[in-house]
Amino acid sequence: MALKQRIQELLSEVDRFKADSQEEIEALRIKYLSKKGDISVLFDEFRTIAKEDKREVGQLLNQLKAAAQERIETLRQSIDSKPVDAQTTDLTRTADPIGLGTRHPLSLVRQEIIDIFSRIGFSVAEGPEIEDDEHVFTLLNFPPEHPARDMQDTFFVSRDPNRVARDVLLRTHTSSVQTRVMLSQQPPIRILSPGRVYRNEAISARAHCFFHQVEGLYIDRNVSFADLRQTLLYFAKEMFGEDTQIRLRPSYFPFTEPSAEMDISCNICGGSGCGFCKHTGWVEILGCGMVDPNVLEACGIDSKEYTGYAFGMGVERITNLKYRVKDLRMFSENDVRFLRQFESC
Ligand code: PHE
User: 288 C-alpha to center of ligand 1: Å?
Assistant: First the structure.
């Protein structure tokens, strides 16, 4: 029977369907499956054949239609998932940019502080973060019952209840590096000690259980408070601009005498008063003072021959002022939206 033969021919044709694009697939669909397509035409013819043939031919015809539909669908899927071939790839197009990464704002500012002081002869000294009470407190003239040694401030790694062995703790300031340098070398000493420090504080926008410091120490013959003031003025102007002014307020630290806290004229309002400086025109940035003779003697330096000054600042605080970061937590959350803002710095 002619119809049966045509169906069989078309069935073998279906297996040989080929297409390289969606357009070619659509052309196949139209040729075979549309209303006037080859297969539809056979359905029309089917109506005219003898009753006794209908069952067999009908099945065959349905098989052909299903095979054609399936083959077209398979071709469509294979084209969808095919990688864009060389013909449609523009090899001259500029590539997508590769992110270069950025330096962390605290690293940028830490390096800037180091650069400023290295121009006037300071070099960097580093020491361990896990320290003992001797280097962090005792040699720095902290009395045995000083509150800073207390659990509330200090993270202890181990503590000897009998007070025979030294307590092991996370350093609460990098002054511990200064004691190590004083113990191991004689003046002149002119060092900066940058590094991470730990204090047992609840984490909030304004406090964290760790932060970063840069401390400085200068010991030589005839070092005076005027030298300290001039050095800090130089630093403030280099860091925050030529118009920056400083003011020193009396303060107390166990390891310096006299001691002071230094404010700079608010670099946000220029000193006229704003929310940031609480309308005072000044913001505190560091602690400083003349090294207490007790500290020099405890570290093996003759306090009759030598004097010295020390200062210490929080890198986070300087960074907040420079880049106006309002929440300390941003520095350790590693949110790329925050970090990307420092790409060009
Ligand atoms: N070590 C002090 C602190 O952590 C800062 C400081 C350093 C003050 C040197 C005076 C002199 O707060």
Answer: 6
